[in-house]
Design goal:
The protein is an alpha/beta fold. The protein is 53% helix and 10% strand. It contains 56 helices and 28 strands. The protein has a six-stranded mixed sheet with strand order 7-8-9-4-10-11, with helices on both faces. Helix 11 packs parallel to helix 13, helix 23 runs antiparallel to helix 29 and helix 26 runs antiparallel to helix 27.
């Protein structure tokens, strides 16, 4: 083929699969793969869209079934031609070639394209290659599913954590099957039906009726249910037999799970790498096949423009929600499965996109002959018409299964009354809701079905049940005769698999290919997470430089022997704990691993192996740079072999710890358990590694850990590697005796272990043999053990990854607050009120709501510009409008038209960008009380997860209603709101998180309730209050808003997918199109007559049966279909008399309300409704309660304190007064500096969670930043004191330190201050950083700096001057160590053990006492054991003070140090308050 001009090609109306054709057909032309070309194409495509907004080009065509089928035909011809060319080249058999050519047209006409038409490229190509189709239907009879029913769970508090921890009996009972059983509930009862290949079944039911359970059971995903009975046949296979075809039945969950930093193309590319069939049509290479499929997918779902955009997620900005949903759909199609289950896949899509999605499913089912099941909420009539059959579920009973065309008539025949303009799905679902269904005249619950059981009985007696039975019988008969089809299926599945795969395997590609595909993905993930990569390199290099400069040029002398050990230990530890982040990664990545396992993409074990290879490639380069800097700056042995051994040991430590943390991540059910495991094992590893306490001084029962301790083995190898190669010279400060008159080496000795009398040289090998019990000849033995441990860890990782299943179950049961008398009374009142209301079948009287709102909000010529790279972008473009009391205004438009932006701007929530135009309340600029007197229910349901629903509403009422209102009145208003929003059943339920807690719909109600409890004086804004809800809940919420408006509230509300019945509740509509331009603002009218009339006048006439809410979006071109008419609807509006009328109305309103606006009393203009003291009282109370109800957070912290203190206490149990014990006492004090490392990361997580909630509440002016910061500090206090006590007792008394109160009391005080310092440091850091990820990047750096410069690892006197003059003095731990060490050692007598004495001979004719007299008179430390002999035995210290004075510490400064340490805590708190007050990371 000749090369084409890409620009012309895009601008011409070309077939939608032209790109695929190019990819698959350019045999000769080299494919340009530079990114710039791709970008040019992208820009040209965008340009084409801008230049051609009428949608005449196919670049922007909608999803039409006919168009897609034509595209596939086109693709098929291309692939067939290719394949034919190839087979002719191969085959000299002319006859066969002719066959292929002849069959081309007939195949196209006769065969409907199936799955292979797109994934294999045409039936001809398949026949030539002998590829078989996979057509499998599903048959189910007597399907019954049971699960654990909810027993009422009460919320766990801090004391419960202790009970659970020490209760070993319950888990054992549980294992033996003797524990308390939950109630087993029947989730699905006796379902039957059949779905043939090429059919689509719509599953309808209220939330909680069993739709998800049915979809999971049909896709053969039975994990998490207690029992599944009945026959389910997949073709001829039973459910058990079908297990080996796991990848052929897949389930798409409601939530989209993807790696957020991969682009759309990379996400789909990975799926293809592990799913590409082994047998491809002849002449097509794998790479071209892969590109062709990706391009087809992107075109099919109209998301080509996102090819190179990252998918994104909660914390990473990427494609829009609707586009992400389509990526999930495409990924699931690549599985090439033949049975597909989709769970509420249109959540969060607007009406036009939702329809596009279902149409794509229809196309795919028709073409691929798949068997498709879909559950949807709020399905429109157009969507409903795409399906063949509908299944209606009511509380686990099958109440209808039959053709979609017959369902409505069936339910009408039972006696149910349809509402005007109610869609069939809404009507059918409504019939299963006892409070929503209406009966026709002459029918009532007495003579018509009125419960799940009666509805089921009615269906079983109907003709549809008999027809279904006949259809099922016929299907089973046909099954027996269709053996050829099933053989095709078996062969097709077998031929998909690559060489070397077992027949039983569910995977398509071999284990090595899975590992290779995962390695490629892992590499891309690492490279694309640039921030994390850059920060980890930066941290590594900075720490290396700090270490290198701190221990600069260590000599080969006795003075630097201890420092060399220190530098090697820190280098090893730092790199080993770089791997700690694996813990979080493993835990967070579980959901995606589970999804890919269900899709049969890869074994979980393949992922672990791939990760370790790729991660080590990155770690190895980083550790190499680190090693070069540290090794050569500190002047360790200059020997190539020694350097590479040093590097190998650090690398081995890093690999082993990475794997170790991954194992912990695999076996821990949640993060708190993982942290507990990690803290205990890591503490063991560190204290037994031979640096903090030498092997020979350890308790005998702890020594065995050394042999399975990677850090200990690597450290000993590093010491052996360094010291076996050097001899050291003794310096004057280690020489005894030294000073004037002592210059004969024959009568002096070096105090370093391994020294010999009469020589200044000390062998390095002797030093480590005597001082550490290390033997140089064991270096490679130790590394061998390390290597064996690495292999063992890897095997464990692989095995556990396959066996352990966490996070594969569904949403857990609700948790309630323990009842008390007051709440019991309130709940009874609510229930009675509800029952009375339902008996009377009447609306709640609106007189309950007393609203005094009279103000009018107007906006004129409103514009909003945000900064973007290279300039600004306009999101709102000259919008006019108003909201007045008593009216309900709908704000609509396609995804991305600026609806939420407009609400944010009007509600004064924006703090970036430039707002132009006027927003006025009663004709004047809103004052500072504006945010407080408007309520804004945002799209994201952000609540404190530890509150109950009632507490959340009361909290809002307490802080936002006028302070003067009596509390009883506020609380009784809250009860009214609970009643109006029908939240009686879960008023005392804990809100929880999206994974465990209230359902989406209940959370939405709480969001609205919290805003209503504030009794807004001006306005109520709501952003998509109905998205994610079923039609019934949506209808209830809109009906409730209607009631509020009738009571005098002014309401502006954005809405997605409204059906006609919902839409008619609104008085007025503001319609936006992309670019934030207004298309219509005005009345809707009864039956939308006013709106229909406006559209008709400008050439867009809606059919009487159309839902105007959907039609108007299509008409203005909001969906993927071209707009109606040849003029832009925004231009039409700008020139319309309606807009002139709106402007006129606004100026009249301003004139009439101006007088009232001017009279407002300025004293009432308070920013917050409550004074500071009241805010503090209410907020501190809530924060305390929140902590009390977070037992895991508190108990994990306490557990870590106790575990470390106990392990340290055991390690240094009952220290004596020997010389080595002095050093160990210093290390016991040094363990206190571990506290910040323990506490800080947990505190940061908690602070960031609470702060996101604060940002939402602050924007409604509930309480100030000062209140928030104070509540966080106060809430942590009691637990900090508890932790300090529990840490201090074992740590201090087990090693046997002094018990008198002047010492012990001071030491406890220091531990307590250190605990408070750690907590406030974590909070202060978190308040200065925008996200948890950023603040956690600072933690290791701060901890290492604090530990290095406090004078323990290297004394201040040996530090370079640049450090000792400022960093040493500024380090908070300097004060901690200075105070604690002097207090512990002051005036403690030292008695050397036999092995610690240094022996030398006094000069002839002198006793030791005479010879040493001058040395001791000059202030020399230590003592001689026996003064009267000439064979002297010298102990280096006489009293503890002699140990710490050379380090520059003094007992007299201990109270000064304590005061300075308290000042550090004060500075942290100051930083926290300033950060909270002046740094706003809530950018919007």
């Amino acid at each position: 083929m000749e090369n084409r001009d890409p620009e012309k090609e895009i601008l011409d109306a070309a077939p939608a699969l032209q790109e695929t054709e190019e990819v698959l057909s350019k045999e000769t032309a080299p494919r340009s793969s530079t990114s710039s070309t791709t970008q040019d194409l992208e820009e040209q495509r965008e340009e084409a869209r801008r230049n051609n907004p009428n949608g005449e080009s196919n670049a922007n065509a909608g999803i039409s079934v006919e168009q897609a089928e034509a595209d596939f035909a086109h693709l098929q011809r291309e692939l067939s031609n290719l394949s034919r060319v190839a087979s002719r080249k191969k085959s000299t058999d002319g006859e066969k070639g002719g066959d292929v050519a002849e069959s081309q047209d007939s195949a196209e006409a006769a065969e409907q394209f199936d799955l292979e038409a797109v994934l294999r490229g045409g039936l001809d190509a398949e026949r030539a290659s002998g590829i078989r189709p996979k057509h499998i239907g599903v048959y189910w009879n007597g399907l019954t599913v049971k699960g654990m029913g909810g027993s009422t769970n009460y919320v766990k508090t801090f004391p419960d954590a202790f009970v659970d921890f020490f209760d070993v009996i319950s888990p054992i009972k549980g294992m033996l099957g003797l524990g308390k059983k939950g109630v087993e509930a029947t989730l699905l009862d006796n379902f039957r039906g059949v779905c043939k290949p090429g059919e689509m079944v719509l599953v309808l039911g209220k939330p909680g009726s069993g739709c998800t359970t049915f979809l999971k059971a049909i896709a053969n995903q039975r994990y998490g249910y207690t029992g599944v009975a009945g026959d389910v046949l997949y073709g001829p296979f039973t459910a058990e037999e079908f297990e080996q075809y796991r990848g052929e039945a897949v389930y798409n969950a409601e939530d989209d799970l993807h790696h957020p930093t991969l682009s759309v193309e990379q996400t789909l590319g990975f799926a293809l790498d592990v799913k590409i069939p082994a047998k491809l049509p002849e002449g097509i290479e794998r790479s071209r096949f892969k590109q062709g499929v990706i391009t087809t997918m992107l075109k099919m779902f109209n998301i080509e423009h996102t090819r190179h955009t990252v998918v994104g997620g909660h914390f990473v900005r990427g494609v829009s929600g609707g586009e992400r949903k389509r990526v999930s759909i495409a990924e699931m199609l690549i599985t090439n499965a033949c049975i597909l289950s989709w769970d509420n896949s249109t959540r969060g899509l607007d009406a036009s996109t939702a329809l596009d999605f279902v149409k794509s499913l229809r196309v795919q089912t028709n073409l691929y002959k798949t068997t498709t099941f879909v559950s949807l909420y709020q399905a429109s009539e157009n969507i409903y018409n795409q399906f063949d059959k509908v299944l209606v579920i009511d509380e686990g009973k099958q109440v209808f299964f039959g053709p979609t065309t017959k369902a409505r008539a069936y339910f009408e025949g039972l006696g149910f009354l349809p509402r005007p303009r109610q869609t069939t799905p809404d009507y059918v679902t409504g019939c299963t809701d006892e409070f929503e269904r209406d009966y026709q005249e002459g029918r009532s619950p007495a003579n018509a079905p009125h419960s799940p059981a009666t509805l089921e009985a009615a269906y079983n007696e109907s003709r549809f049940a008999k027809e279904l039975e006949a259809e099922m019988a016929e299907y089973k008969t046909v099954l027996e005769s269709e053996t050829e089809k099933h053989e095709d299926f078996r062969v097709a599945v077998r031929e998909q698999k690559h060489r070397g795969m077992s027949k039983k395997s569910v995977y398509s590609v071999g284990f090595h290919q899975q590992v290779w595909a995962l390695m490629k993905r892992q590499f891309v993930l690492k490279m694309q997470d640039r921030l994390a990569l850059a920060l980890s390199w930066l941290r590594s290099i900075v720490i290396a430089v700090v270490l290198g400069t701190l221990y600069l040029n260590l000599g080969q002398t006795s003075a630097s022997a201890f420092s060399k050990g220190g530098v090697m230990f820190i280098a090893l530890l730092f790199n080993a704990f770089q791997a700690f982040s694996e813990l979080a990664g493993t835990m967070l990545g579980r959901a995606i691993v589970n999804k890919h396992k269900a899709y049969a993409f890869h074994r979980p074990s393949a992922l672990w192996i791939a990760q370790i290879f790729v991660d080590q490639a990155f770690a190895a380069t980083q550790i190499m740079v680190f090693s070069i800097i540290v090794y050569f700056m500190t002047n360790l042995v200059r020997d190539a072999g020694a350097f590479f051994t040093f590097y190998l040991m650090i690398l081995s430590g890093n690999i082993a710890m990475t794997l170790f943390f991954r194992i912990i991540g695999c076996v821990s059910p949640d993060f708190d358990y993982a942290v507990k495991f990690a803290v205990v094992t890591v503490t063991f590893f560190i204290v037994t590694s031979g640096y903090l306490i030498q092997y020979q001084s350890e308790k005998v029962w702890l020594r065995w850990i050394y042999y399975i301790n990677v850090l200990g083995l690597s450290f000993s190898s590093m010491m052996e590697n360094e010291f076996s190669r050097i001899d050291m010279t003794c310096t004057a400060d280690s020489l005894i005796p030294s000073g004037p008159g002592y210059d004969d080496i024959n009568h002096q000795v070096c105090t370093l272990p391994g020294s010999k009398p009469g020589t200044l040289q000390i062998s390095g090998s002797d030093y480590i043999t005597l001082g550490f019990s290390y033997r140089p000849d064991q270096l490679w033995r130790n590394w061998g053990i390390t290597f064996a441990l690495i292999v063992f860890f890897l095997i464990m990782n692989v095995v556990l990854g396959e066996l352990v299943k966490f996070g594969m179950g569904g949403n857990t049961a609700k948790v309630f607050q323990k009842p008390n008398a007051e709440r019991k009374r309130l709940n009874e009142e609510l229930t009675n009120k509800r029952d009375n209301r339902r008996k009377a079948r009447q609306e709640a009287e609106s007189s309950e709501l007393k609203l005094e709102s009279k103000s009018i909000l107007t906006w004129e010529d409103l514009c909003y510009d945000v900064p973007v790279p290279g300039g600004t972008r306009r999101l709102l473009n000259h919008v006019f409008g108003y909201v007045k009391p008593g009216e309900l205004t709908a704000l609509m438009g396609a995804s991305g038209a600026g609806k939420t932006t407009l609400l944010d701007v009007l509600a004064a929530r924006k703090n970036i960008g430039v707002i132009g135009g006027d927003i006025l309340v009663d004709g004047i600029k809103p004052g500072k009380e504006f945010q407080r007197s408007t309520s804004y229910a945002e799209q994201l349901d952000m609540h404190d997860p530890t509150q109950t629903v009632r507490e959340a509403l009361r909290f809002s009422a307490d802080l936002r209603q006028p302070y003067e209102t009596p509390r009883e009145e506020k609380y009784s208003y809250v009860e009214e709101i609970i009643s109006l929003l029908e939240m009686e059943t879960f008023a005392d339920a804990i809100i929880g998180s999206a994974e465990a807690g209230l359902t989406v719909e209940q959370r939405k109600r709480v969001t609205i309730g919290v805003e209503l409890a504030a009794k807004p004086q001006l306005l109520l804004f709501l952003d998509e209050p109905t998205s994610g809800l079923d039609s019934q809940s949506a209808f209830n919420i809109v009906r409730f808003l209607r009631k509020l408006a009738a009571a005098g509230q002014a309401i502006l509300c954005t809405i997605h997918q409204p059906n006609a019945a919902l839409f008619e509740n609104f008085d007025r509509l503001l319609l936006l199109k992309s670019g934030g331009r207004c298309v219509y603002f005005g009345d809707i009218g009864k039956d939308a007559t006013v709106l229909r009339d406006y559209l008709r006048r400008h050439g867009a006439e809606a059919k009487p049966t159309d839902n105007v809410a959907e039609y108007m979006l299509e008409a203005i071109g909001a969906g993927s279909a071209p707009r109606v008419g040849n003029r832009d609807w925004a231009d039409i509006w700008e020139e319309s008399p309606e807009l002139a009328n709106v402007k006129d109305t606004i100026s009249q309103m301003k004139d009439s309300r101006m007088a009232v606006g001017a009279e407002v009393n300025t004293d009432l203009e308070k920013e917050y409704a409550s004074p500071l003291l009241h805010q503090l009282k209410v907020v501190i109370n809530r924060t305390n309660l929140g902590f009390w109800r977070s037992p895991n957070y508190l108990f994990t912290r306490l557990f870590n304190h106790v575990a470390i203190a106990l392990l340290t206490g055991l390690t240094y149990l009952n220290l004596d007064n020997s010389r080595s014990s002095l050093q160990y006492k210093v290390f016991v004090m040094f363990q206190v500096t571990v506290l910040p490392a323990l506490v800080i990361s947990q505190v940061e997580v908690m602070y960031h969670i609470k702060r996101t909630i604060f940002f939402r509440e602050q924007s409604s002016k509930m309480y100030s930043a000062v209140t928030f910061a104070a509540s966080m500090v106060v809430a942590e206090m009691p637990y900090s004191i508890l932790c300090a006590v529990c840490f201090f007792l074992p740590l201090y008394y087990m090693p046997g330190l002094q018990t008198e109160s002047s010492r012990a009391g001071y030491q406890f005080f220091m531990v307590l201050i250190c605990e408070l310092f750690s907590v406030t440091l974590g909070q202060g850091l978190a308040s200065l950083t925008p996200s948890l990820f950023i603040s956690s990047q600072f933690d290791p750096f701060i901890m290492i700096t604090f530990a290095l410069f406090c004078g323990v690892t290297i004394p201040a006197t040996q530090m370079p001057r640049g450090y000792s003059t400022w960093l040493y003095q500024l380090d908070p731990f300097t004060r901690l160590i200075g105070g604690m060490v002097t207090t512990a050692l002051h005036e403690v007598p030292v008695v050397c053990a036999e092995s610690e004495l240094n022996s030398f001979v006094a000069p002839p004719g002198q006793t030791c006492g005479d010879y040493m007299q001058a040395f001791f008179n000059n202030g020399g430390p230590g003592y001689i054991v026996d003064n009267s002999t000439s064979n002297c035995q010298y102990c280096a210290y006489k009293v503890g003070d002699q140990f710490y004075q050379p380090l520059g510490l003094s007992f007299d400064n201990r109270w000064r140090d304590l005061g300075i340490f308290i000042a550090f805590v004060g500075s942290n708190i100051l930083i926290l308050f300033l950060g909270s007050r002046f740094l706003n990371f809530n950018r919007r």
